[in-house]
Amino acid sequence: MSRELLASKVRVPGPRRAAVPRSRLADRLDGAAGSRLTLVSAPAGFGKTTALAQWLAQVPPGGPAVAWVSLDERDNDPATFWAYVGAALRAATGGAVGADPPTGTSLTGLVNDLDAAPGEILLVLDDYHLVESPAVQDGIAFLVEHAPPGLHLVLATRTDPPLPLARLRARGELVEVRAADLRFTPAEAADFLAGPMGLALAAGDVATLSERTEGWAAALQLVGLSLQGSADAGAAVARFAGADRFVVDYLADEVLARLPADVRAFVLDTSVLERLTGPLCDAVTATAGGAARLVALERANLFLVPLDDARQWYRYHHLFADVLRAQLRERQPERVPELHRRASAWLHDHGDPADAVRHALAGGDHDRAADLMELAVPQLSRERREAELARWVREVPDEVVRARPVLAAGLVGALAQVSDFATIDTRLSDVERAVCPDGGPWPERPPPGVIVVDEAGYRSLPAVVAMYRAALALNRGDPAATVAQARTALRLAPPGDHLVRAGAGALGGLASWTTGDIAGAHAAYTESVAGLAAVGFVADVLGCSITLGDIRRVQGRLGDALDTYERALELAAPGPLRGTADMHVGIAGVLVERDDPAGAAEHLEVCRRLGDRYGLPQNPYRLRVVLARVAAAEGDLDGALALLEEADRVYNGDYSPNVQPVPAVRARLRLRRGELGHAAAWARGLSTTDELSYLHEYEHVTYARLLLARGDLDGAVGLLDRLRVAAEEGGRTGTVIEILVLLALARRDAGPLGRAVALAEPEGYVRLFAEEGPPLAALLRKLPKGDHVRRLLAAMTTRPSRQPLADPLTDRELDVLRLLATELDGPDIARRLGVSLNTLRTHTQRVYTKLGVTGRRAAVRRAQELHLTGPGGPGRA
Predict the structure, then answer these.
(1) What pLDDT shows up at residue 28?
(2) SS3 for 440?
(3) pTM here?
(4) Which of 141, 235, 517, 703 is the most exposed place for a label (fewest CB within 10 A)?
(5) What is the DSSP string of 60-118?
(6) What percent of the chain has pLDDT above 90?
(7) 3-state DSSP call for residue 295?
(8) Do 623 and 588 touch, CB atoms closer than 8 A?
(9) What is the spatial order of strands in the sheet that 121-126 belongs to?
């Protein structure tokens, strides 16, 4: 069993053979086509999956595309959950939707693709009650709230999900199918018992069973099985105590009692499995012929559900599995641990470490589970399954983990990756006490009583502990301790342990970056990249390259930043890896600064096509920030602000210091629009006498811009002079250039500007100057007319608009108008422009307002009348 997605989980189940038609249920479910959400909510055994399968089998050709996901507990990992949703949507739409699997970090792309889909889509999530992850729940809530008209979400669940059901109900956007709806009516019960169950019962007996089972589908099926072959069905019905709380156990006894002994033993033994396949069943039962038995059980209609078309994998009906497990525990409790042990061994040998651990835990063998966990940690860490590892922390007794320091350290790493730092300090102290109870040096071999399965992991343990103490210090905002612990980790790491050395180097680099030691940060990250490349962790090299590129830009070295991103892309060739999308965003950021928005747009389009699957956690917000810069460069400040709002919502720093907070970037745009009130509201708490630090440098430069806009030149100059000295001492030339530009504007002096141009010219800075507009252009004209000065003046030249409008359209609005004149729909236009649908709607509404129209066709006609599009049009304003 590999880490690849299981095709059986996205297979739409077919209707059961000889199923009873239930037209009233189909009619109720047909309401799903007009709703955002259909909720099929009822306890186990009410036939939720069967009812949906029957209903979907009636979808006519040309009807809605059906995407289905059968969920299990492993789908609590957001990456796994959204990967299966993407796979289901791809299968349903022939690749039109889900080509770029969503991650849950940002679902905007998925919503846009769904809106662009040519027809309607039914997305069915079965067994949704098994999903408890808040991150997944939040993603589903977002999908429900922003669902385009063509998407209809269906949740089959035993419990109501944490969604705004009352609000959806009040809006008429919710269809509900409850236990009362799923109960068999007396007529349906009669059809079921006479048809699929093959029972010739008197009408009175049918009525008795229907009444006593209260229409519960599973109970009807169980009682039907118990009655098959009965010499006196009427007497058996009379004995049936439908109101008894032990009815299920009673019926299970009846069913099991009628099975041949070998079949009964088989289903009881294999009931410990969530998924069944022949070889696994053979291993668990210690007999042969498991594959043939599964086929026979399916043909006998004994609650077995196929999970693939090849009939290789199955599962028992959930309720029947619960009954079998209860029977097994009651009849043969001593066998349960051994059955789980066999399952665990087979799964471990066949490459499924997570399920191997689960069975060891279910069998109560915490020692074996811990051994398997220790061996599995490196693989699951490489596969970025930290959420799964973090769950293990709660499933193994602390005393078992304390005796296994390598496992304990691995679980600490998982907790750190999911930002759960609450117990890390204590756990690291437990590791140190276990190995060095007297506080002495780390022993070369594990001391008595300490259990180690991963010998290589033990050799790296001292360095690993120091590395995680560095992460803990970084999380606490203590860069000095971070650097100290990172250096300790580097000193203790075995020569060949490139991963620990790379991790420690990166943490030290982050701490140096946080304090403004840019050169130190660059050196540390360069060493980390070398270590990661040495062991082939290319995706992690890409992650470090984001930081390296950022550092180079802070140093004012745009060319080196570009080289960093491009070298990383070469390393990722021939196929994309996680982080490839981030490299294209980094390149686009440099090209925007160099006043090449068209080139930037090409790389942003590549990023969009790659999708979230090939982006790291920071990418959703970084992408929107660069898109906002492109929009601002084209004069579309409204669109830029909308993109920054989105960036703020999806922000994820992923350990990197937040040295350019999105609210501060947004405040700068507000200042360009003359909205001093908004900028002032953001700046509350800042002053010209604040203690300066690199972490808040961008915010203080932004505050200086606000002071300039207010006319407080003395306050601005005083703050800028302090900031300039700090930035120069820290080697942050990119910041120095901006400060010199602002000082030139504040003093109306071309002197600082000349120095800024001299620093900027070798690296190709343009937008930083061009965005200051006419006031800076006047100062530039006082400088000697070198090539770069001429380039800057050309970028700042505003061509007079030839639009016959009182409020001319911006460049971006002209782009929108031209695309409105094509046959592209809204989602296609949004993708072409690299913006979200909400941003496109904002642009479109402003176009309509400026043209004095209310719709798309009218806008196109008005544009033609004014010669705003097509040959002879004015081009960009």
Answers:
(1) 81
(2) coil
(3) 0.59
(4) 235
(5) PTTS-EEEEEE--GGGGSHHHHHHHHHHHHHHHHTTSS-SS---SS--HHHHHHHHH-S
(6) 33
(7) helix
(8) no
(9) 65-70, 121-126, 151-157, 37-41, 174-178
